[in-house]
Amino acid sequence: MPNLQPYANPNYFIILGIALVPLIIGFLNGKRWHIYETLVSLLFLVLIFDGDKINQGLALIGYVIFEGALIWGYTVYRQKRNNTALFDLAVVLAIMPLVIVKFVPFLNPGRNSIIGFLGISYLTFKAVGMIMETRDGSIKKFEPWLFLQFMLFFPTISSGPIDRYRRFKKDYLKVPERDHYIDMLGKAMHNFMLGFVYKFILGYAFGTLLLPRMAHLAMASRGGFLDISWGLVGYMYVYSMYLFFDFAGYSLFAVGTSYVMGIETPINFNKPFSSPNIKEFWNRWHMTLSFWFRDYIYMRLMFFLMKHKITKSKVLIANLGYLTLFLLMGFWHGLTWYYIAYGLFHAIWIILTDVWLRFKKKHKDHIISNRWTNYLAIFATFNTVCLSFLIFSGFLDRLWFH
Amino acid sequence: MDVENTVVEILADLTGNDDIKDDMDMDLFETGTLDSMATVQLLLELQGQLDIDVPVSEFDRNEWATPNKIIAKAKELQ
Predict the structure, then answer these.
(1) What PROSITE patterns would the database entry show (chain B)?
(2) Is A190 a catalytic residue?
(3) pTM to 2 decimals?
(4) CATH 3.30.70.100 holds for B3-77
């Protein structure tokens, strides 16, 4: 069997198209065949993880068994008791494989952990989400078949969007109304076409054609203050465009495929560069990641701090929440100085944005606010976001230290 | 306890806006009236004043988006 990486070449799409036809016919006739859906998923999981990726495939199997056993155990326990230390332990165990995978290349540069596999970062969110919902009493039973379907849902396995168990289960168990499914098919078609333009035309143009030239130019123009040059500025914008079109393109494919399969996976991008400030930006960029951190980290931490009256200052609580959220997000990307700097950058930026928003609210009557100030805000936000992406790209590491 | 009045009072307090009762179908999140911090405060107030326990994972923004929806949810969970 050949190895095909998700959405990477025409063969993947051809096989996908052929495999999905019976599903589409079924749905249009009001029928849902879970067995067939599962066979298609298995086919694609094999295609993604065979050949030279077989070790990853084995790691994936081991990981799913481990997380399944953990979640099952915790779910059973939680129906009788609710000890906090045990909940904390369950979460720590759930993230252990990912932590190991992130630490190995940090301790041993150049080496990758044998337990790693494509998508482990994203599957871990799904697993931890399930544990937290079980803790909260929202999930009361472990359902192995649904768990496997949720975790191994192949359209989103490599890089999300990150779905949530109960939302997925609801979609999975129902047969969409014919009219609704036709609507979903329409959206899927639109997603595939837009995804194609984003990933294979724009993302390709920016990432494969322009970016290396900018990199070359920036590296050759070192010597100024902080090695800044027009080449570096060019790199910043080109990289930002590449990042958006490549990732948004992938997300469109993932969501489109999900829709054809009757699962309304949440979207990841919603005109992010039209955001007037960084708070709005995180409602529009990599949305499923942002909302996961918001709901499972930020809100829980704030709830804890406020309930236990750790401090009276709401501002301090919010700021601690932001720092925790964005630093964790930085670490999640990897144990490099630039990922952590990226997290810190966004933490500080959002804290300062809150300062500004509070000031604006207080002096509402003395601050100009019109169409032009809004454009200015969008422009400023866009540029600052691009600067944060330059940090995120790791290029500064190349520029300054190599 | 009058759920409707309590919720309106809590919201007015949180947002610093007494006119909240004039538009009970306003989307509080889209308009930026409520953010995550205010949401947590809302849940804590509901717990304290109406004895309603809402775990954070139960909170779905779609179901709690407007004052009317919040009142409906509060009544349901009482």
Answers:
(1) CARRIER (PS50075)
(2) no
(3) 0.94
(4) no
